[in-house]
Known about the structure:
- By secondary structure, the chain is of the alpha/beta class.
- The protein has one domain: Rossmann fold.
- 48% of the residues lie in helices and 14% in strands.
Amino acid sequence: MALKLAQKGANITVVDISAETGEETARMCRELGAEAIFVQADVSKVEDVQNYVAKTVETFGKIDWFFNNAGISGSGVRTAECSLEEFNAIVDVNFKGVYYGLKFVINEMLKTGGGVIVNTASLGGLVGLPTLGVYSATKHAVVGLTKVIAAEYGRENIRINAIAPGTNETPMVKAYPQELIAKFAEAIPMGRIGQPREVADVVCFLLSDEASYIHGAVISIDGGAAAV
């Protein structure tokens, strides 16, 4: 996503919990001709979120686009077997981290005439995913936040949507056992898992003026998984 925006000439703040991958992404953006900075953050910590917002405004003057994209999945146990430690970790990243980002970015956008936001929900925000109950619940919460903020801030030129990706070939998914990934692919009507670039294409569209009347929507990017 960062690389696609860099190719379009956007200034980029890359936010990542990993300094290694975050710095690498920012470097790649600069190689494409964009101005890009990296800010390390754990989005479950409100002070880290405030810092990445402040650093962005300090560097670039304002925030026009916000791709609110962070999440962890959990260990794959039935919901009542999920430990309280795991429950809190998932809620802290997937729900609180998303809310913190919205809170502080929206406040900045209101100062400068508005902006566009895309939240990352999930297939799990549209259907129940057995053994990923807490993850699924937090992604339903992201869908709810998206719709409420659309109703609250649309007249102030803040446009917001969410994406609901299915299983994609991301580092989180590639860490799963190969037989589980194959099982996921078999269950998808298109017969394969998705590629990150396919998600990035949709996010770029939603951030652009070409999507100027799409507001409060949740766009599935899942190879048809939510349809079955």
